[in-house]
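Do me a favour: review this protein, sequence plus structure tokens, and tell me how the chain folds. Record follows.
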Amino acid sequence: MQKRYEDAERIRQELERRSDDRELLDRKELLEKEISELKRKAGIWRRKARTSKRRT
């Protein structure tokens, strides 16, 4: 009985760790998307700043 409990507990912990890993991966992907979007916007702002400097 003790062995079965220990096995079940070990499996539960492994599944919990995997779900944590999945959450971290999801969060990482969201952050990477946000970073790429911010980089894209920064590039647009830089180009706009350059063109406005040329006009003055």
Notes: The chain has a mean pLDDT of 89. Residues 2-55 form the longest helix (54 residues). The chain is about 95% helix and 0% strand.
